[in-house]
Write a structure and sequence with these properties.
By secondary structure, the protein is mainly alpha-helical. It folds into two domains: about 5-45 and about 100-225, Alpha-Beta Complex (2-enoyl-CoA Hydratase, Chain A, domain 1); about 55-85, no CATH class. About 55% of the residues lie in helices and about 0% in strands. It has helices at about 15-20, 25-35, 40-45, 60-65, 75-85, 95-100, 100-105, 115-125, 130-145, 145-165, 175-190, 190-195, 210-215. Helix 2 crosses helix 7 and helix 7 (about 100-105) packs antiparallel against helix 8 (about 115-125). The longest helix is centred in the last third of the chain and has 17 residues, at about 145-165.
């Protein structure tokens, strides 16, 4: 998710997926802020980007089984039944799962980006080589992002994570998240960080980011300009 590195933010509803993932939204925030890419089936299942893992060698047989299935009035259940015969547990196990306590410690929704950076610096000195490498990589990912975009991303993912499970809140639904992301995208796309097309960020550091300006990006548009979903 490299959008922060071009002055934008992770969109297409990923904050909604991240809110439902383990860690109370921390994993989604970690991926969104650092730009970490999901590179294994186990991690894709862990975060909720997938529901089943089928080895590529079995995809042809799976396709034939779906095409020849006798569908009822509940096709979703029918497909689930077919998939059950082909799905496997991916190996190795999810790296995100192993690192979950550290991810929560660094990227819980109540932490600012600056606080996440300070926490990561502590883990960067860990005697556990895996944890230290993870923290170092996360810090490097954050360093590539536009400070304004990083703060915007943290606020967005935090808001959506906090709304998860509250059916009365508009951000608990994908349509609500997409509507908000449309507002953010319109305003982000005209900021210099994106228009310039190079990492000469304005503001240049996290400390220089005006959070009131970040919050203004989330404000409703004129009624006729809002995304209709």
């Amino acid at each position: 998710m490299p959008e922060n590195g071009i002055g934008l933010f992770p969109d297409v509803g990923f904050a909604y997926i991240g809110a439902k993932a383990p860690g109370g939204g921390a994993v989604g925030t970690y991926l969104g802020i650092t730009g970490k890419r999901i590179s294994s089936p186990a991690d894709a299942l862990f975060i909720g980007l997938g529901t089943h893992y089928v080895p590529s060698a079995n995809l042809g047989s799976l396709k034939e089984s779906i095409l020849s299935a006798n569908f009822t009035d509940d096709p979703h259940r029918d497909v689930e039944s077919v998939l059950t015969g082909y799905k496997k547990e991916p190996e190795p196990e999810a790296q995100l799962g192993k690192l979950l306590p550290h991810i929560i410690s660094c990227f819980s929704p109540n932490k600012s980006v600056a606080e996440s950076v300070e926490e990561l610096k502590k883990y960067d000195q860990s005697g556990d080589a895996t944890v230290a490498e993870w923290a170092n990589e996360a810090l490097a990912g954050i360093k590539k992002g536009a400070p304004f975009s990083l703060c915007l991303t943290q606020k967005h993912f935090s808001q959506v994570a906090s709304a998860y499970g509250n059916n009365e809140h508009y951000l608990s639904k994908l349509a609500g998240v997409m509507k908000l992301e449309y507002r953010i995208a319109l305003r982000s796309s005209v900021r210099n960080d994106f228009v310039e097309g190079n990492p000469k960020w304005n503001p240049p550091t996290l400390e220089d980011v005006n959070m009131s300006e970040v919050e203004s990006v989330f404000e409703p548009l004129a009624a006729e300009a809002e995304l209709n979903v």
